[in-house]
Amino acid sequence: MLNEYYDTIVIGGGPAGLTAGIYLSRSKMKTLILNEGTVGGQIILTHEIANYPGIEKISGYQLANVMKSQAKSFGCTIKSNIKITGMDLTGDVKAVGINNKEIYSAGSVIFATGGRSRNLNVPGEEKFKGKGISYCATCDGDFFQDKNIIVVGGGNSALEEAVSLTKYASTVTIVHQFENFQAFEHAVEEAQNNPKINFMMGSKIKEFIGENSLEKVIIENLNTLEISEMNIEGVFIFIGYQPNTESLKGIITLNDKNEIIVNENYETNIPGVFAAGDSIQKKYRQITTAVADGTIAALSAIEYINSTKILNHA
Amino acid sequence: MLQTNLKHILSEADLKKETTENENVMVCCGRMGPMCVPVYGIMEELESEYSHVAFRDMEFDSPDAKAIRNLPECRGFAGLPFTVYFKNGKVANATSSIQSMEQVKSILDSEFKK
After folding, report:
1. How far lies B66's CA from each of A63, A90, A145, B15, B29, in Å?
2. CA A137: distance to chain centroid?
3. Residue A210's closest chain B neighbor by CA?
4. Which one of A85, A190, A311, B36 has the lowest number of neighbouring Cβ atoms within 10 Å?
């Protein structure tokens, strides 16, 4: 069991976590970023970013790599694709365990765990992922040339991707659990005016069925409770995001959407524990807002560390 | 060419050579898209831990990638990337779409025992 001490451990390697890493390391704080997936977070899912000030156009993958290099250049240690297997945030020294074999301790912790696409969590979803079920229209749209497909969801992503999928598919049926869409009016209008798009409102998919690949879905009408079957070869799921905070339940105060509650200094309810980015309670989720969150959380952590050092030396 | 730090397979002949010369080969055939990039990242992470495995990528849209796209083991695949595991030149396993570190390691551990 390794037990190396850091000033701050940042959990999460998206824009918020990497920005915190840049600010902390540049302030000579010994910093460790722990990331359960590939460094970059959700921005690596973005093909092109055109609204990040100072950069006209860049892919999410490239921007993430620049942020990662910046953090490393200031001395930040980054461990990615690890599994957090334990944590103790009580007391002045916090501990985080990874992969059931290494433990790192620190004076402060910043959670920048981000969010991820929601799954439907119905039978057959995992089995047919990549064999009829997709979460990315730009990646997998061309596998469904001249086929009938379903798009699940009613937000901007669902409607915009449904329109883009009509380039390939014969028909696109939007299945949405509510009677109204949550998307912007222009996105709804564009979908409604597209002759290839049909709508199945007040309905949800109950099950995915097939042998080697997806062949049909079971759909429930939520008003009549009527169950029907639809032969279909492709289903694209766009039902929003959820914060990656499951492991924090009962440890840090979360709101009813499982988002971390922080004050204006991005402190959680535990002294020395901060949070930033898409996993915190807030209205707008952009790369720019995540970067700002990471900056403030890092500066607050630096102030906290320095104040505890003064107290310990007093 | 894919912008990864993995060794690239550029042709069908390359693929044949790699799978002939190496006992264990994992090939991720994709694009620089959101479902593919995380798998390349996982492979880069695992290169030092699994030194007995050759980790390679191949551009899905190159004509020669038909050698992967048309494999019987990839029939019914409709999600990028197509990831194929070769043992002694033969397909040992294949997956479609994004995979987690846990899923990749589980296949490597079962198909490519040290």
Report:
1. 31, 55, 18, 11, 10
2. 17
3. B76
4. A311
Cα A160 from Cα A157, distance rounded (Å): 5
Q: Could you tell me if A106 and A139 lie in one domain?
A: no
Confidence of residue A50 (pLDDT cuts 50, 70, 90): confident
Delineate the domains of chain B, giving CATH numbers in brackets. Answer: 7-104 (3.40.30.10)
Does a structural domain hold residue A124? no
Which ipTM value was assigned to this complex?
0.80
**Beta-carbon separation of B35 and A139 below 8 A:** yes
Partners of A265 in beta bridges: none
Asked, for residue A126, whether it belongs to a domain, the answer is: no
pLDDT in tens, A83-92: 899 999 999 9
Would you say A201 and A99 are in contact if contact means Cβ atoms under 8 Å apart? no
User: Is there a single domain that holds both residue A298 and residue A149?
Assistant: no
Question: Could you tell me the residue range of the domain that residue A45 belongs to?
Answer: 2-117+241-313
Residue A224 placed within a domain? yes
Option in B37, B41, B78 nearest A131 (CB): B78
For the record, the structure tokens of A194 come out as 């597209």
Q: Is residue A314's pLDDT more than 70?
A: no
Residue listed under structure tokens 């920005």:
A19
Counting the structural domains of chain A, the total is: 2
pLDDT tens track for A247-281 = 999 999 999 999 999 999 999 999 999 999 999 99
Q: Closest to A81 (Cβ–Cβ): which among B32, B45, B98?
A: B45
Question: What is the rounded distance in angstroms from the CA atom of residue A73 to the CA atom of residue A71?
Answer: 5
Say how many C-beta atoms besides its own lie within 10 A of residue A134's C-beta.
Answer: 30
Edge-to-edge strand list for the sheet holding A203-210 = A203-210, A214-221, A227-231
